[in-house]
Amino acid sequence: MANPKDDPEYDKYCDPDNPVKIKFEDILEAARRMTGLVTKTQCLRAHMSEKLEMEVYMKQEILQYTGCFKERGVRNTMLLLTDDQKRNGVVTASAGNHGAALSNNASQLGVPNIIVMPLKAPCTKIANVERYGGNKILYGNNMAEAKRHAMTIAKEKKMLYINGFDHPHIIEGQGTVGIEIIEQVPNVDAVLVPCGGGSLLAGVAVAVKHLKPDVEVYLRRSGQCYAATSVRKHAARCRTWASRVALTAGPRTIRRDVVGVESEKTRSMTESLKKNERIFLPMEFSIADGLAVNKVGVNTFHTLNNAGLLTKMVVVPEDWVARAIMHVTEEEKFNVEGAGAVGMAALMCGLLPNLKGKRVVVVISGGNIDTTTLGRALDRGMAAEGRLVKFKVGVWDKPGGLAELCSRLTSIGVTIRDCVPERTCGCCITRNIYSVQCKIIAETRGWDHTKQMVDLIKKHYKEYLFQDLNGKAEKTTTKKRGPCLAPNPICMQ
């Protein structure tokens, strides 16, 4: 039987036969080791708290030097390198954030480094690796291919391969986020953590559950709570037998929830925990590209599985991630990437109704969003909330016809983002020669305002096509027409 250590992808720090369970003492040592070397990011109350009906605090890891929590794990790992490892250098595979953090720290310490990135990595993150002094190599169509190439390079050049989401020192560094959360919001009820490979989730879960374990309490009729260890003392003070029974009738547990959050296209940890084993999950393009890990880490899975650390995993639809990016940009006044927005998305779309009225910390893991992706997310988010509407309307093709349409939309406060008249397309051949179809993209204030605009179009125009409030196409024409003579027989669609 072949020796598994001969496999190019064998990593002694992430060995399935010898997984490492992360301990709080190691996370605490990492926090002491990195004091003053990484940013202690703020954890401020979100403006969206009232809307979400809970006290929401945002742990803003976007304030790290490279714009992401990855700075913590990389700094801790680099501080623990031996002299030989520093001399030979380090190599990793990354879609962006881990590579940028490794480039920055290795360059500061004068350590040779190679960052292998998939060909389809976001342009902004590729540029970040270059800016921080990384020696980048673009290889493979996905992270799995990039990782295999990086590990092959590591063995050929005797460099240290640093797994960005599973190296024990990486996980320990990420766990310092949990220590800071408890320091900044000591009475927290739940912590929502994005999950890709699992290093941030595992580290935070270990720290939070150690510092704020579940507490078993007994409830008295007055509503006052007592810790289980002090029940006998309080029961002895009760004057009547009935009061003692009311006090000791049944314990309840006050939980400090740690919730992992993934998008619907990056749910590798959710599926692995369901099947009680690490599985390979093919990845599609996702707005949360920082979470796109095909197979979760050996050590992260071993730490989280059956350890009582994780309350649950939730999976967020991709469109809600776009909406979360939009709302954080508008209401909290900072940019966040898709991976960092999944926690807010989980609250917005109602996946955690049990947190209503509670104190919740959401880890905003990163802000390195590609400008093109940001524009798309804002547009998709506005469209999903009825604030960006696309429709078609037939107007009189005479001087003043289009101006009249613009004037009517302006009168109710609608902004026209785009307008394209179509006079010669196939679907217009059989129409009145003095009629022109206009494709409109309009910006409104929301569904009520959109409904007002739709009513106005229906009132003044006889031909139109738009999506109604239920998302179904509604089409009206002046009269029944004959068969379409155009090559494309679907008119106005």
From TrEMBL:
<dbReference type="GO" id="GO:0030170">
    <property type="term" value="F:pyridoxal phosphate binding"/>
</dbReference>
<dbReference type="GO" id="GO:0006567">
    <property type="term" value="P:L-threonine catabolic process"/>
</dbReference>
<dbReference type="Pfam" id="PF00291">
    <property type="entry name" value="PALP"/>
</dbReference>
<dbReference type="GO" id="GO:0030378">
    <property type="term" value="F:serine racemase activity"/>
</dbReference>
<dbReference type="GO" id="GO:0003941">
    <property type="term" value="F:L-serine ammonia-lyase activity"/>
</dbReference>
<dbReference type="GO" id="GO:0070178">
    <property type="term" value="P:D-serine metabolic process"/>
</dbReference>
<dbReference type="GO" id="GO:0004794">
    <property type="term" value="F:threonine deaminase activity"/>
</dbReference>
<protein>
    <recommendedName>
        <fullName>Serine racemase</fullName>
        <ecNumber>4.3.1.17</ecNumber>
        <ecNumber>4.3.1.18</ecNumber>
        <ecNumber>5.1.1.18</ecNumber>
    </recommendedName>
</protein>
<keyword id="KW-0456">Lyase</keyword>
<dbReference type="InterPro" id="IPR001926">
    <property type="entry name" value="TrpB-like_PALP"/>
</dbReference>
<dbReference type="GO" id="GO:0008721">
    <property type="term" value="F:D-serine ammonia-lyase activity"/>
</dbReference>
<feature type="domain" description="Tryptophan synthase beta chain-like PALP">
    <location>
        <begin position="256"/>
        <end position="366"/>
    </location>
</feature>
<dbReference type="GO" id="GO:0009097">
    <property type="term" value="P:isoleucine biosynthetic process"/>
</dbReference>
<dbReference type="InterPro" id="IPR036052">
    <property type="entry name" value="TrpB-like_PALP_sf"/>
</dbReference>
<dbReference type="GO" id="GO:0005524">
    <property type="term" value="F:ATP binding"/>
</dbReference>
<feature type="domain" description="Tryptophan synthase beta chain-like PALP">
    <location>
        <begin position="36"/>
        <end position="235"/>
    </location>
</feature>
<comment type="function">
    <text>Catalyzes the synthesis of D-serine from L-serine. D-serine is a key coagonist with glutamate at NMDA receptors. Has dehydratase activity towards both L-serine and D-serine.</text>
</comment>
<keyword id="KW-0663">Pyridoxal phosphate</keyword>
<dbReference type="GO" id="GO:0006565">
    <property type="term" value="P:L-serine catabolic process"/>
</dbReference>
<dbReference type="InterPro" id="IPR050147">
    <property type="entry name" value="Ser/Thr_Dehydratase"/>
</dbReference>
<comment type="similarity">
    <text>Belongs to the serine/threonine dehydratase family.</text>
</comment>
